[in-house]
Amino acid sequence: MIQVTKLSRNYGRFRAIDTVNFKINKGEVVGLLGHNGAGKTTIMRMLTGYLEPSAGSITVDGLDIGQHKQAIQKQIGYLPENCPVWPEMTVIDYLRYQAQLHGVAEDAIDSAVVDAIRKTDLKQKATASIQTLSRGYRQRVGVAQAILHKPAIIILDEPTNGLDPTQIQQMRSLIRELAQEATVILSTHILQEVQAVCERVLIVRNGKLVIDSSIDALQNSQSIEVLIDQANAETYLSAIAGVEKVVKHSSAKDLFSYELTAATAIAPAIAQAVHQSGDQLFRLNPVTRNLETVFAEVNAVDTSAA
Known about the structure:
About 35% of the residues lie in helices and about 30% in strands. By secondary structure, it is an alpha/beta fold. It has 2 domains: about 220 residues, Rossmann fold (3-Layer(aba) Sandwich); about 80 residues, Alpha-Beta Plaits.
C-alpha cells in the first residue's frame, strides 16, 4: 500500500533523513520509533505530502505523491504532533468545519462528526470551547478530526502526548479499533505505546532506518543463556551443532554466564554437553528481549560509534 524508496530530506547541509526504504501493507499497524530528533516527524510530514523529499519517492497504491498529492491526501487521516485547532470554536463546530475540509458530503457530515465524537469519547465536551479543554482533550479532538472522513491510512504523531493513564488506555483501544478498518502508522518515542498496539516496528536513529521488523521477531532473540561453574567452557560450547557464537559474560560467586547464539530447540544438546564435560549446570534458558532491550542495543551501537 505504501512504498518508500531511498527517501532523503536535507535542511541546507544537514541531512535529516538519509536514504530510508520501507513498505507498509494494507491493514498493518506499524510503529515508527526513535528518540526525539531522530527524524520521525520529518518522515510523517513527507508521507502526508506536507513536506517534499530532497530525494527518493513515496507511492500509495501505486500513485506517486509528487504527482498525485491531493488524491493521496484524501486517503490519509493525520494527527500532527502539535495539532492545530481553533481555540475559540466549540468541539462540534470545529469537527463540522474539518469534515467540510476533508470533503465529507454535506448530508453525511452530522453522522461523521457523531461517530468521531463517540470513538474519541468527546461527548461530554462536544459543546465546549476548545480553549477551555485540557491538553489531553485537545489531543482527542485532533484524533477526531483525523478520522472524520474514514481514511484508509491513519498517521498519528505522538497521539498520547498529554494524556493521563486512563486516557492512554482509551487511546490504545481506539487505535486497535481503527486498525480493524485502516492501515495505522503510529509515531512515538514511547516504547510502551508501540509494544501495546503495533505488530511491526520501524526504528529510526539519526535519520536512518536501523530496524524494520515484526514485534514477535524482535522478541525472539535466538539466544540461550547458560550458567555453569566452568570459567573456560567456550571450546566445547562452540562445538555443539547449531551454536553460531558463544559470548562469555561477567561471573559471580564462582559461576560463569555464557550467551549462545542458537535456536532454543538445541537446549537439550547444550545440557548434555555440559553434563559430559563434568561441569555443573545452574541455569539454561532463552534470552528474552522486548522493545526496551532492542532500543537500548540500537542506541548502544550509536554511542559506541560516536
